[in-house]
Write a structure and sequence with these properties.
Length: 327
């Protein structure tokens, strides 16, 4: 069809027509709000993430109550544990009474409709800030790490986690975690695998929030996270995780990786999550603070485009704000 029989603008002339044919809409049901919880019992702000706080074990309860009232039913919990509890071998991650386990029990009792997603990786618990165990030669020991991660996943499942989310990018961890959970009769605990997780500069504010940034120093996660130049490798990693037993897969970061989200969506049949990470949050916040653009417009666009690319579930530090706007 050609002009003038076809004029694209006819369908754009009225708001009600535009609304009627909108192909993508964000719903609160798709959103996950990530939270940092600080064991030191002090609420603190995070310099690189304006507007995001580290909550205490007390204050997170009413915060999550507010979030649920706004319609967001899923949270991802990230612990900021006491520095003296960090160790070479991340032992605190297996403590049945660690910060996350205590919180899981409290939240499950308080909010039956809440879905808790627990991060499975060692970086919050190790002295060096790595996601895995480091051997005597300074290398990440893959197979020892996945044993540890499996126990950690079970520990979280026992305390009430609905979804365990390995974000470490070790090989074979999904298979081992699934078999641990099955063996221990946690048949219904979901695995959301950070399956296509890139080695990204955009995680820096998160590491500052967690207090792992200084520990990590100049060391990089490039021996386990995916090189951002690689598309096919990212697809392979997600396909493998599905094979190993993931219920949900993830692409991370989100905004600069929408080609990967789309391609994996077209190739697979399980739900896909995308994580709008700390650096994406910080960039938008900083630009808005200089008056370049309006927060609401730019955030809704960023989230909508992530959904349009194929993400079913979206992790975003803007989730609570977005829920308020969608009301
Ligand atoms: C830990 C983990 C990271 C993020 C989520 N889980 C950081 C990392 O891999 O270094 C990043 C989230 C964000 O930047 O918002 N494995």
């Amino acid at each position: 069809m050609v002009f003038p029989d076809h004029r694209g603008r006819r369908l754009r002339k009225h708001n009600s027509i535009r609304e009627s044919i909108a192909e993508t809409n964000i719903c609160v049901q798709n959103l996950v709000m990530p939270y940092f919880i600080d064991e030191s019992n002090k609420i603190s702000s995070i310099d690189s993430m304006k507007g995001i706080k580290r909550f205490t074990e007390e204050s997170i309860i009413s915060e999550i109550g507010e979030l649920l009232d706004l319609g967001v039913k899923m949270v991802a919990l990230f612990p900021v544990i006491s520095p003296q509890k960090k160790s070479k071998n991340a032992d605190e991650s297996l403590n049945e009474d660690n910060l996350i386990c205590r919180l899981n029990r409290k939240l499950k009792k308080e909010f039956p409709e809440l879905i808790i997603i627990c991060d499975v990786a060692l970086d919050a618990y190790t002295l060096n800030g790595h996601d895995g165990l480091v051997d005597s030669l300074g290398k990440i020991d893959n197979d020892k790490t996945i044993e540890m991660l499996s126990k950690m996943a079970l520990n979280f499942a026992k305390s009430g986690a609905d979804i365990v989310a390995p974000s470490d990018m070790m090989d074979g961890r999904i298979k081992l975690i699934r078999s641990y959970l099955e063996k221990n009769k946690y048949h219904d605990t979901c695995i959301l695998s950070y399956s296509s997780k890139f080695c990204s500069n955009f995680y820096t504010p998160f590491r500052q929030a967690l207090g792992s940034e200084k520990n990590l120093g100049n060391s990089s996660k490039s021996t386990y996270q995916i090189d951002f130049r690689n598309r096919r490798e990212a697809i392979k990693e997600s396909l493998e995780d599905i094979e190993e037993g993931s219920d949900i897969i993830m692409v991370k970061p989100a905004g600069y990786y929408l080609d990967i989200v789309r391609e994996i969506k077209d190739l697979t049949v399980i739900p896909i999550a995308a994580y709008q990470v700390s650096g994406e949050y910080a960039m938008i916040k900083n630009a808005v603070s200089t008056g370049i653009f309006d927060l609401r417009g730019v955030v809704l666009e960023s989230i909508c485009c992530i959904k349009r690319s194929g993400a079913d579930i979206i992790f975003s530090y803007f989730a609570k704000e977005v829920a308020k706007w969608l009301r």
